[in-house]
Design brief:
254 residues; mainly beta; Porin; eight-stranded antiparallel beta barrel; disordered C terminus
Amino acid sequence: MKAGIKTMILVMLASMLASHSNAQTKSDSSAFIPMFTIDYSIQIPRGSINERYDANSTIGASFRVKLKSNLMLGFRGQYLFGGKVNDSTLFQHILPSGGRFINIFGEEASVIVSERGFYFAGEIGKVIPVFKHGKNSGILLQATAGLLQYKTRIDNDGNNVPQILNDYKKGYDRLTNGLCISEFVGYQYIGKSQIANFYFGFEFYQAWTQCRRNINFDVMAPDTEKKKDYLYSFRVGWIIPLYKRSVDNVYYYF
């Protein structure tokens, strides 16, 4: 009987130590952690892109793998959207003297322009721990390289203005894309919970782009200028680690 109790106690102690060790692995020691992230950012444009658009926002997602060496590899995508288009002369040559579009019914038409785009890239980074208990958290440095694309979105309520429908719309949207790189510096936190994990920081983009339309109808000529676009960004993201949740408390029933 006494031998059975001693065996049970030893099993309980071993289980508790194993549980405690497993819980510490995820935050107190550097671990291999696959993860998804969801992020939001605000971007301030400079260079050629600022001639056409004002500030924009992005929503994005990524898949990353953090190695035990704290090196991070992954890829991500971002959807760009903005409200203000700086080019006020875009439709000047097709607008009536009143400055408003007229639809096929002879009425004033609702036409709204805005910015839309995306960024797809591969990324590499490094986590530099700053606290003793938290080897997976710390200063986050990242670099990316990929494709940046943006254009002017033209919305016509009712699709009843012939001058900007279907292929005619492409003559005004200034579809532009090209190689883009970025550098990010911020902070990442990954704890024992699978919910309360996050990162934030500042990012700087540099892109070499060109308009891809054969002709722009407002000037009746192609845009062959090589552009240099810059974006200054603040980004915050939620991290979803893909490891099994550690159990901090083990209960035994007799």
